[in-house]
Amino acid sequence: MVNKIFNIFSKEIVSIHGIAYLLGFFALLAQLLALVRDRMLAGTFGAGTTLDIYYASFRIPDLIFVTVASLVSISILVPFFTEAEEKGKDTKSLIDAIFSVFFIIMILVSLVAYFLMPILSPKLFPGLTPDEITKLVTLSRIMLLSPLFLGFSNFFASIVQMHNRFFLYALSPILYNVGIIVGIIFLYPIFGIYGLGFGVAIGAFLHAFIQVPFIVDKKSFPKMTFKIDFPSVKRVIGLSIPRTVTLSTSSISAFALVSIASLLGSGAITIFNFSFNLESGPLSIIGVSYASAVFPLLSRLYVQGKKDVFLERMISVTKHIIFWSMPAVVLFIVLRAQIVRTVLGAGHFTWSDTRLTAAALALFSISIIPQSLVLLFVRAFYAEGKTKKPLSINVIAMVVTIACGYLFVFLYNTFPTIAYFFQMLLRIEDVPGSIVVMLALAFSVGITFNMILHWVAFEREFPTYTKNIKKVTFQSIGASVIMGYMSYLSLNIFDDFLNLDSFIGIFLQGLFSGIVGIIAGILVLKLMKSEELDQVILSLKKKIWKDEKDKNIVLDELV
Questions:
Q1: Is the predicted pLDDT of residue 555 greater than 60, yes or no?
Q2: Which pLDDT tens digit goes with each residue over 259-276?
């Protein structure tokens, strides 16, 4: 029985759409668990000091993860291991050598961060009181286990993806959220706020451990060794450093915005994180799934010199990202209040908290498509072995994002007309602390600027790229506008039949209105003869898992 379960989890999947749908499905499950997690946090604590400390305590461990643990990221190791395998090299020795160096670096960095935490925290979060900083330091120290385990998970995922075993990779985020929920339910009553940190560490451990059985079965589990192939390790680090800096720019931007939020009053950090988490749902389900699914194939195509097929894959995936993301953007903006009230509207989470989170969610939702496409462009450049280009673009975008954060807060405080405009637009004119929405706007402006720069850079290399995207963009915008309009009208209609003072009433209002809008959008796409809609319907009819004899056929077919 155990072997049968293991065989299901470790089954090879080679269809890009199959991989994307698999990752999307499990991302959906992970997001549902994340919603349960956030609802429990919101209901238990509300948008206040406790959750401000909790979310602030993620910042330094997260920065370590993106700056150090990402040295062994999937986007670097998959092409590296793939190239070594294509050339008949001993990949196990490479795995052992890279793991050994990575393990030592992670331990040293974590120890340094542990001892510097009391010095760094007051400077990074100047809006917190000394008592809050004390709790923050202890909680952050506990959470230092998280980047260590997630770094190992990254390393393991490179081996798993190299064998096209995406099932295990897809399960990891689910287990991560399970660990956090365990912390909320069982550990918080025992250890207080520190129990939340232990839950995060447990989740990170499970994130990594789920991939271990397959790696052991393939005899690829890394071992510590002093026989290190330094030229290969040096090459990996040389490729990783630009990529790591590229990835860290997003974390640094979020770090800076959270730091600004600490100055905007109690609950501002929590509002920022809750709204960002909600917006991350469609990003994980759509953008991350497609970018992760196509990356190993892009790497293989570039190594094989098939640039034409490389471009075709990029065009196809871009179309599907826009096709799925555009409706998500519109629905999240139109149904933002219903989403927030359904997910977070419980216990100590007040009506003012709900309105501010919904307003920030609307502004964050603008960034769903840009974030998804940036993920895709960065992976495309990495598949080509080009790390400097996305590095320079992301650094510029990071500076723009942080500058916008300070600028927008200044303008909001200085010019009442600007504040009044956003308050009226987002319906938060009588809600204290509404200035926090400026941070969501700054993030969306920065990531949109980032996407434009990446798009232009990719277009210069592949001049026919943009013209192949225009049709699906036009169709998606047209269908999404109709979808949003029908959903908005439906909200008022269902308002007369449902009890909006109850969880079920709010949930059903949002659900039925969304369904009406989606049906209208599908009909519009049908009238426009959308090729993407036809492909989705066809793909859903096919089996996701292919037999081994079909592997080469699937890899060669166009998506």
A1: no
A2: 999 999 999 999 999 999
Kind plus residue range of the DSSP H or E element containing 343: helix 336-344
Give the largest CA-CA distance in the chain: 72
- 100: which residues sit within 8 A by CB, 6+ positions away? 222, 223, 224, 225, 226, 228
Contacts of residue 511, defined as CB under 8 A and 6 or more positions apart, other chains included, come to none
CA distances for 382 relative to 74, 245, 270, angstroms: 10, 13, 34
pLDDT of residue 346: 82
Neighbour-count burial for 363-402, b at 16+ CB within 10 Å, e otherwise: bbbbbbbbbbbbbbbbbbbbbbebbebbbebbeebbebbb
Asked if residue 140 and residue 224 are part of one domain, the reply reads: yes
Lowest pLDDT segment from 42-46, 174-178, 344-348, 481-485: 344-348
> Is there a single domain that holds both residue 53 and residue 99?
yes
| Reported pTM | 0.85
pLDDT digits (tens, 9 = 90+) for 415-431: 999 999 999 999 999 89
Domain that holds residue 320: 2-468
**Would residue 559 count as lying in a domain?**
no
488 and 457 housed in the same domain? no
Cβ atoms 422, 411 nearer than 8 A:
no
d(CA 511, CA 278): 16
User: pLDDT by residue (tens digit) across 299-341?
Assistant: 888 878 888 999 999 999 999 999 999 999 999 999 999 999 9
CB within 8 A of 33, min separation 6: which ones?
174, 177, 178, 181
Looking at the fold, whether 368 and 515 belong to one and the same domain comes out as: no
According to DSSP, residue 433 is labeled T
Residue-wise DSSP of 46-107 = -SSHHHHHHHHTTHHHHHHHHHTGGGG-HHHHHHHHHHHHHTT--HHHHHHHHHHHHHHHHH
557 occurs within a structural domain: no
- Round to whole Å and give the CA distance between 121 and 117: 6
Give the C-alpha distances (Å, rounded to integers) separating 231 from 2, 31, 96, 236: 41, 41, 14, 9
Q: Residue 557 phi/psi, 5° resolution?
A: -75, 150
Question: How many other C-beta atoms can be found within 10 angstroms of the C-beta atom of residue 464?
Answer: 9
Distance CA 132, CA 120 (A): 14
